[in-house]
Design brief:
Layout (H helix, E strand, L loop, with lengths): L16 E4 L8 H9 L5 E2 L3 E2 H6 L2 H6 L9 E6 L3 H15 L3 E6 L4 H4 L11 H15 L4 E8 L7 H10 L5 E7 L10 H10 L4 E4 L5 H7 L6 E4 L1 H5 L3 H8 L11 H19 L2 H15 L6 H8 L5 H9 L2
Parallel strand pairs: 1-9, 2-4, 3-4, 4-5, 5-6, 6-7, 7-8, 8-9
């Protein structure tokens, strides 16, 4: 098992840690466990609103659910009010005792940005600093980490400045998505800026953006990052973590999953979602987007995806697989 201390130490670069990126509507406990089994070292919950924690609503409680087997695991919080974020973080630590708190300064979604959360703080460094200081103080000695983007837009790339502020505020690790808020998830990630952040701070920097294979990973680590964060690529290929570990010097050679192994993982994910929700129709409906990602590259192409977009039972999915 990966020692958590190595994920926060800037002096131990011998092993590149692999992180599953927190993704709204994707990285629930079931998917996190699947990625953990396939080589993800460190997990984080879907991002959670500080307001949701303060209001103690049912959806927020679901977001905070995890099993001991998922550790080391952090809870990612977002919001723009330092006091409320600090109180929410303290409640999370007291209630479920995660291994670290992660602050979301990178989400580009309008519904988050308009509430002064996520990447909106990249253009309000004084408030970003206030948030970081408040949360670090509230949960000490538990580590507090942060995720940022390289800037608001191409005319305001300020990742090195932001990273230095966070480091001085007591943040112990920074994940950098190599895109601006304005880019969203389009265009290419700028790993040159990520390398500049690595050089600018002493705390570990985790690189994120466009890592879809072991080839991408080997190129990315040339920046000097202490770890790699994988998001969208894991949605259709949870085996990517094992592939990257093997390329980075693992003891065993990576053997890609067979078509049948991919199908079996999809079945398992669906079964666990059905058990979790207690309602097959609701579970399969919620799985449709996940199924579209999982079956990327499957035979059948567009007709298969069209059928998957309407699937409502595990039996229907089995029929689709049988016809491939």
């Amino acid at each position: 098992m990966l020692e958590l201390s190595s994920c926060f130490s800037s002096s131990d670069r011998r092993r590149i840690s692999l992180f599953l990126a927190p993704m709204a509507g994707v990285t629930n406990p079931i998917f996190r466990r699947i990625c953990k089994e396939h080589g993800a070292d460190i997990l984080t919950t879907e991002f959670v609103s500080a307001d949701g924690i303060m209001h103690q609503n049912e959806r927020t409680r679901r977001y905070l659910t995890f099993t001991e087997g998922e550790r080391p695991l952090g809870v990612q919080l977002f919001g723009g009010d330092p006091e409320r974020l600090a109180t929410a973080a303290q409640r999370v630590v007291d209630g479920i005792r995660p291994d670290f708190i992660d602050l979301n300064f990178g989400c580009p979604a309008s519904k988050v940005v308009c509430r002064h959360g996520g990447s909106s703080l990249l253009r309000d460094c004084p408030r970003l600093e206030q948030v970081a200081l408040a949360v670090v103080k509230a949960v000490a000695p538990l580590p507090v980490t942060a995720k940022i983007r390289i800037g608001w837009d191409e005319n305001s790339i300020n990742a090195t400045t932001t990273a230095r502020i966070l480091e001085a505020s007591g943040i112990t690790r920074i994940a950098v998505h190599g895109r601006t808020k304005a880019q969203g998830y389009s265009g290419k990630a700028n790993w040159e800026v990520i390398a500049q952040v690595v050089a600018a701070v002493k705390i570990p920097v985790i690189g994120n953006g466009d890592i879809a294979s072991s080839v991408d990973a080997l190129q990315a680590i040339k920046t000097g990052v202490a770890g790699l964060m994988i998001g969208r690529a894991a949605m259709n290929n949870p085996w990517i973590f094992s592939e990257i570990h093997a390329a980075l010097g693992g003891k065993s050679k990576f053997v890609p999953p067979t078509f049948q192994e991919r199908c079996e993982l999809i079945r398992r994910h669906c079964r666990e979602e059905i058990t979790s929700k207690g309602n097959e129709l609701a579970a399969m409906s919620s799985m449709r987007a996940r199924l579209m990602a999982y079956t990327k590259g499957f035979p059948g192409g567009r007709p298969l995806r069209e059928k998957i977009s309407r699937v409502s039972s595990l039996a229907e999915l089995e029929d689709l697989f049988a016809a491939l």
